[in-house]
Amino acid sequence: MAQKVTPRSEDYSRWYTDVVQMAELADYAPVRGCMVIRPYGYALWENIQQGLDRRFKATGHQNAYFPLFIPMSFIQKESEHVEGFAPQLAVVTHGGGEKLEEPLVVRPTSETIINAMYAKWIRSYRDLPVLINQWANVVRWEMRTRLFLRTLEFLWQEGHTAHATEAEAREETLRILEVYRDFAESDAAMPVICGRKSESEKFVGAVESYSIEAMMGNGWALQAGTSHFLGQNFAKAFGTQFLSERNELEYVWQTSWGVSTRMVGGIIMVHGDDQGLILPPRLAPLQVVVVPIWRSEEEKAAVLETARQVQAALGTVRLKVDDREGLTPGFKFNDWEMRGVPLRLEIGPRDVAAGQVLSARRDRLGEGKEALPLAGLRERIPALLEEIQRALLERARRFREAHTAYPESYQELAAAVEQGFAWAWWCGSPACEDRVKEETKATTRNIPLEQPGGSGRCIVCGAEARQMAVFARAY
Prior knowledge:
By secondary structure, the chain is of the alpha+beta class. The protein contains 14 helices and 25 strands. It has helices spanning about 10-20, 40-60, 70-75, 80-85, 110-120, 165-185, 235-240, 260-270, 295-315, 330-340, 350-355, 375-400, 410-415, 430-440, and strands at about 25-30, 35, 60-65, 70, 90-95, 100-105, 130-140, 155-165, 190-195, 210-215, 220-230, 240-245, 250, 255-260, 290, 320, 345, 355-360, 370-375, 405, 420-425, 445-450, 455, 465, 465-470. The strands form 6 sheets. The chain has an 11-stranded mixed beta sheet, sandwiched between helices. Strands 16-15-17-18-19 form a 5-stranded mixed beta sheet, sandwiched between helices. α2 (about 40-60) packs across α6.
């Protein structure tokens, strides 16, 4: 008998780990806190990469690659940066059997080493803007890890741009935030809140940080992507200057931004159920699985022939014909449901005779199957996949709305963050923010860009507040 997934209602954390492992997305590595991304999980990550990379290149960015090892002296040049990352650094002190003259830090992020190169490459305003992204791995020595969500080593993209003016850099910061929002909602079917991080939650070394925040299936938040306005902090630390049109030497203005493999974890937790994964069609490694059903060799030949015809007709769709021998149709159904394949097509002898397939949507388990004529599959299946994509986004939005509160007292806030998001007026005081964190374990996820206007009373201290913040417990 196949192993069952722990129900979400019983143990959400265990459910998540069960799904990751049973759907063969990833497994624990021999090194504590690291993971092995299995082919199915990596195929999902590749589709995330492609969706983002296409958007980056459409906005003028180019890919490059910078070293994994960073001189310790580089990390120490920006004081706020080194102070924030010090507890998470992995440091190499020996190489080739000898002690190194200077320790090397295994890349936790690349602002420092990239600025060292920008300081060499940028000479004039004609060299700007520099719009570079890299796909890489990074290492942060986390104490508490969880597959995809927080591991010692993870994969990501990190963009690093340099501009002639503050206005251009700020525009870039928000442009990328919108790229992330569009990807999350259009491709991952994950509704997000775009906003500015509080002073205590911003990236170390940044002037301002912005994020997209998504609600997971247990009401907690996940920071799914960040975009940072760095100002001239790193430029001044590394001497990254240019000769302006006024023939004056000036420091560049910079941004950095990133999305990591935690996006995979977000997709699992936004859409998954007690049967396993539910993947949005635009990102699913397989969009359609065809399950042929037969009892005799004669039936097998006819059914497989029809299955191959369906496969040929749907050439633009990521499709697999599951013709494995010795497994029951029920086992195959459960297997692909666990893996979150958006659409299953079943073909038996009666379907061959009727010139049809039976379709079952992963997002509507238990709601019956629909007969689809073979003649119209080329058009119908892509349209059906788009229907599923839209339905997943709308379902996630409804869930978020149902678990979002607008408390009017501190007691209501404390109760609200146990169930989901709480929008509340906040005076901006770190003391009020700290109190919420200490007493409720919730944090300010961000200060949404879309504000209601006007003012109110701080949910914590009662002082006048001109902005609402989203409070929630978070991964």
